[in-house]
Amino acid sequence: MTSVTESRPPSERDRLRIGPVALALPAAAWMLAFFAAPLVVFLVYSFLTAKLYDVSGPLTLEAYRDAVTTEVNRTLAVNSLVVGVCVAAATVAIGLPIAYWLRFAAGRWQVLVLFLITATFFASYLVRIYAWRSILGENGLLNSGLERLGILDEPLGFLLYNRFSVSVALVHIFLPYVVLVLYAGFRPISPALVEAAQDLGANAFARWRRVVLPLIAAPAATSFVLVFVLAAADYVTPQFLGGTDGALLGVRIQAALTGSGNWPLGAALSFLMLAAFLSCYALTVILLRALRLHRIRFVS
Amino acid sequence: MSTTQRSPVTFAVTMLALLFLYLPLVVVVLFSFHATGALSFPFTGFSFRWYRDTFGSPTFSSALQNSAIVATSVAILTLVLGTMAAFGLSRCRPRLRAPLAALFFLPITLPGLFVGIALLVYFARLDVQLSLTTVMIAHFVFVFPYFMLVAMAALDRLDPALEEAASDLGASPWKVFRKVTLPQIWPILAGATALAFALSFDEFIITFFVIGPDSTLPMFIFSKLRRTVDPSINVVSTVLMATTLFLWAVAFVFALRAERGRTRRAGGVLGEATP
Q1: Measured between beta carbons, which residues in chain B are less than 8 angstroms from residue A261?
Q2: Which segment of A159-168, B22-31, B133-142, B221-230 scores lowest on mean pLDDT?
Q3: Do the domain assignments include residue A199?
Q4: For an engineered disulfide with A223, which of A114, A143, A181, B201 has Cβ 3.0 to 4.6 Å away?
């Protein structure tokens, strides 16, 4: 053993030690150049004065003042908040029983159903928006179907172009993702824990409240925040399904960037949103720690 | 193997959710075969005319070609740089791990909108013309963290003793990688590459900001969605979904193979230890 180690040329041992980080450098350089640097430049832009599709001038807080004081921005921020919270709550509430069933009750159907659910994650984002528009519209499939069956006399107008239609499509988009995260959270939990609670006389409600939920709290909170952030910052779904009532802040940011060419305003709105999102992440971590739920793990 | 319980409520929720997830997609596919241009019931008969129309249109073929070029380049680039980075990250000194991981995984937590507009402004600042190249650059940023998540999970489960044994026996690092490590992880890497292709092929949120005058399949759907509604959108949607679903199936099968291979090997070692 010793002789082998000694006979190895020293240069090769050096390479073994320096090697690993060097392997990560090309990707790290790419991410620095095309992820970190653009964000920094964009942050600087939020403190400059707008020229059409360009910026100029000394550092100023003008764009932030503009972003906060404009009435429509506040309305859109409230819309984003409401839609984001509803979508996140709905996906986690629907995702929990699904992930539970997959882990503890699915048996030989587990692989198939897990595949079917995650597969829809890869069904194009735009296609789902299109699908929901053609289902919920005034001449859509739901209305035309119900009319043909004689249930409706005239189409239901409230299905599309509001916060409801935006939320339905976003739940459809993010549900598979949440199921995957929660299933991964359930995986290390032994079925024996739930069975023990059952044997000790806990009913279904008590089993969920005292055993299942504390164990899954951390993944559930993480997926809640992630879905909230991704849904609240969406700009495509509200464009096609939101109309004027269901518009979100993302639509305004996109318009500031590509429509009106006011880059500092778009940047200021983005970073205000980002600050709100970061505080959500921080709050989640603090809450989980305060409730002592961040490290609960009972591995089988 | 876990024991299975009976849980009728969660079973019912799962089945309803499957219905909710699949019905809209099935409807889109169904109406791509509609004989007339109507997108509402009644369904008046099957025909391939919208497929013939769409595949005959030059805007569709150039969008398809662009999507294929971008997704293929992104997948290859991600496979090479991602595999290297996953090794670097899992084998480097602990002190360097946290900052590298932050750089690699942060984009996943950030909405695509921010990545897209920041890149748009950045490219304008640098006077870079928007083209398929800028789309590739942006897609790499988007796809890379997903590839890393999968690759890191695979690398973390490797038994380091096998590589140590090989290098103690005098194998060069490259030979250790080729003969010991790669045979254990290639199914995962293949699956993750298929995933990278699928994600890039379908990407719209970031692409919208960095594409310039060219088109990809999602851009094609987007521009049609804004103007008209006709079954050619259903056709392109069906093509897009069929491609990404096929790739996800490939990735899934590879992941299952790796999982089964691992348990079989583990069982084999245990079997020898305790006959």
Answers
A1: none
A2: B221-230
A3: yes
A4: A181
